[in-house]
Design goal:
Elements: H1 38-51
Length: 52
């Protein structure tokens, strides 16, 4: 399993799988500024499903 590009302050790597075509786990990806964009809706939905 590849790991997220997020690194903790103690230099440990985050151990969750990262989002396809990204080097970061879904919860570490910033939402786009345009709240009406498809990308915003997709990322928000993935974040919601991840924390449930």
């Amino acid at each position: 399993m590849k790991t997220c590009g997020y690194i903790f302050l103690n230099k440990e790597k985050y151990t969750y799988e990262f989002l396809k075509n990204s080097e970061f786990f879904i919860l570490h990806i910033d939402l786009p500024e345009d709240e009406s964009s498809e990308e915003f809706r997709e990322i928000k939905e993935l974040k919601r499903r991840t924390v449930q």
